[in-house]
Amino acid sequence: MAVDAVDEFLPAPKMAALGLQHVLVMYAGAVAVPLIIGRALKLSPEDVAFLISADLFTCGLVTLVQCIGFPGVGIRLPVMMGVTFASVGPMMTMAATADIGLLGIYGAVIASGIFAILIAPFISRMLPLFPPVVTGTIILVIGISLMRVGINWAGGGLPMLTKVVNGEVVTVANPNYGQLPGLGLSLFVLLVILALIRWGKGFVANVAVLLGIVAGAVLASFTGVMHFEKVAAAPWFGLVLPLHFGLPHFSLVPIATMCIVMVVVMIESLGMFLALGEMTGRTVDQKALARGLRADGVGTLLGGLFNTFPYTSFSQNVGLVGVTGVKSRWVTATGGLIMLALGLLPKMAALVEAVPQVVLGGAGLVMFGMVAATGARILTAVDFKTNRFNLFIVAISVGFGMIPLVAPNFFKALPHELHPLLESGILLAAISAVALNVFFNGMKGASLDEVVAAAKQADAH
């Protein structure tokens, strides 16, 4: 009996290599949030290091929940889970408020995780509002939005860095951004990946991104860009215990803010789950969506308990599934086990952390572009010839999605409480596409049967 590609077990060496590839492409994003929040809170270097280990440990734990699945929880698709960047802005504000602090943040995270678990079935019922013209547009915007991450990786990080100076959070220019050696390393990684995709066979082609990153890391070591001092200084083993910093504090305003963030996160996750359904050929129905979204809530609840932050499905790993063509959820489950190990073995975590962002940049351009290409492929199943309204849905929604990307201060004058919603281009594109589709095509154009039929048609292409 043939095994579905999503449920396929690969040989252990292949599983380990492919899982490590998933870890490498998400690692920089996974550790960025605890670094930013830890420094904003003026925590000691040891406490910041613990935040990173706690984050990696919980990434692995929640990834296993999402991939393996338990009754009512977990979408059972090749998903890697990590801390969402959508929570950074609100948590920075909480960090700067004396009566909230880290324990107040953890209280808000725990409460928002419970909230997400409760509302998951209601969010999943929104599936009929997402026909191919909507899902294709959202996934296209996800890919385009992620390109900013890949480009900044290639440039050497963010062009502006956040630092704490005299007790205040300020931004300063990154002196290493856009330097020629870093750009050269990114280009080298990109060329290696393209060569392996073009001329590699079988397993080698599947791990092209991993081999490109390894080749880039070796070159970075020889050129003095990759350093190993932190690896030598890191201990071999360290436990991650819950409530390490003390009992969380619960306050209404931080909780309400974080619950709004979770709604944003779950709508973005919905789009990613649909993208994975397209890539793997597995129909993602309402029950599957509810399980996946509930896992986001369980992950966020565990995040608050294990000294970290809200969790979501990582978009960059969706792109990697498209690049490799490997659809097995056991590959990402293996990645989850590796993340668990990194959380418990600080020296291993330090080794992966030592890989420069410019090395990851060359790989990011490939992976994130694949997400955008998936959105474009879904849109090929949309009737643009006889239904001209669909053109307007795509055009206007992409425009809304680009606002935070090209004009970060566009909504500056609006109330600060709305910024978590308005600063997500993916959410703006989703709201616009859903509203315009209902306005132009009505609910009859967005039935679940048509979603599934169009998904199969797109997959046939």
UniProtKB/TrEMBL annotation:
Location within or outside the cell: Cell membrane
Pfam families linked to this entry: Xan_ur_permease
Chief location bin: membrane
Ranges annotated as spanning the membrane: 20-41, 48-71, 100-122, 129-151, 180-197, 204-228, 248-276, 330-352, 358-379, 391-410, 422-440
Membrane topology: Multi-pass membrane protein
Source superkingdom: Bacteria
Molecular function terms from GO: xanthine transmembrane transporter activity
The keyword Heme is annotated on this UniProt entry: no
GO cellular component: plasma membrane
Record key words, sorted: Cell membrane, Membrane, Transmembrane, Transmembrane helix, Transport
Presence of keyword Nucleus: no
Family: Belongs to the nucleobase:cation symporter-2 (NCS2) (TC 2.A.40) family.
Protein name: Xanthine/uracil permease family protein
